[in-house]
Amino acid sequence: MTKTWDDFLLPYEQTVLEIKAKFLALKKQFERSQKHVPIEFVVGRVKPVDSIAEKMQRRKINRERLAIDMEDIAGVRIMCQFVDDIYQIVKLIRKRKDMHIVDERDYILNKKPSGYRSYHIVVEYPVQMLEGQKNILAEIQIRTLAMNFWATIEHSLNYKYQGEFPEALETRLQRAAEAAFQLDKEMTAIREEIQEAQSLFSYKRGHTKE
Ligand code: 0O2
After folding, report:
1. How far does residue 142's CA lie from ligand 1's centre (Å)?
2. Helix (H, G, I), strand (E, B) or coil at 144
3. pTM of the predicted protein model
4. Catalytic residue among 54, 139, 154, 196
5. pLDDT tens, residue by residue, 120-143
6. Could you give the domains of the chain?
7. Exposed/middle/buried for 180, CB within 10 Å: 0-12, 13-18, 19+?
8. Per the count of CB atoms within 10 A, which of 37, 87, 142, 196 is most buried?
9. Whose CA is nearest to atom 29 of ligand 1?
10. Which of 73, 162, 169, 193 is nearest to 122 (CA)?
11. Is 164 in the active site?
């Protein structure tokens, strides 16, 4: 490949910016509609070159097949309050005409051995570049705030231990993942109460601003 990494990653940067903007726009539409807002916040990133290189080595992916075999170079993460919100977002993504789903992985129903939970959707997204349209793969991860809390901490520890956790720590992390999932269940059980309070709160905020 004669292209530099910067050239190669340019359409991925554009993909992340555009998909992120679209989910933020969706959030705004929910806010305007006075319905429950299933999106808490959205983040996005292009996988750093050293992580791409590490994954290429681990997965034996050669450079010619990089854009086809590595699905998460462009990544967008959507955080939700409730587990049901995740599935609502999934349904909305399935209906969209501006991105095409190529794979779905439900790590909520089928948690990873680490304890990791999230819903992953791989989409093919058309970006308009100077040289024409390019179809870019992007991974959308949808998770609750509790799942995100666990995954963020586990990710930092993983970096420190390079995936080789001491057994006691691994067990503790698995237990923490279950505690986070219990928290999601408890929050679902009192969901109506929470939503009533939130709509009262936003109504009051709306009034004090005027
Ligand atoms: P980053 O910094 O989040 O981008 P693989 O990458 O080989 O593990 P695969 O099949 O390519 O897996 O994709 P998968 O499992 O659908 O998604 C990989 C991404 O999901 C990871 O990206 C993480 O973001 C997240 N993930 C998957 N399993 C775990 C886990 O056990 N703990 C945490 N914290 N996150 C996980 P990267 O590349 O690790 O990094």
Report:
1. 13
2. strand
3. 0.92
4. 139
5. 999 999 999 999 999 999 999 999
6. 2-209 (3.30.460.10)
7. buried
8. 142
9. 116
10. 73
11. no
ipTM for the predicted complex: 0.91
Please state the atom number of ligand 1 nearest to the C-alpha of residue 152.
Answer: 34
Question: CB-hemisphere CA count at 13 Å for 137?
Answer: 16
Which amino acids bring their CB within 6 angstroms of ligand 1? 47, 51, 72, 75, 105, 112, 114, 116, 120, 151, 154-155
Candidate of 155, 156, 157, 162 to mutate for ligand 1, largest count of ligand atoms within 8 Å of Cβ: 155
Give the number of other CB atoms < 10 A from CB of residue 68. Answer: 9
Convert the pLDDT of each residue in 69-121 to its tens digit: 999 999 999 999 999 999 999 999 999 999 999 999 999 999 999 999 999 99
Q: Measured between alpha carbons, how far is 70 from 130 in angstroms, rounded to an integer? A: 23
Residues with Cβ < 8 Å from 17, sequence gap 6 or more? 44
Sign of CA dihedral 159, 162, 166, 171: positive
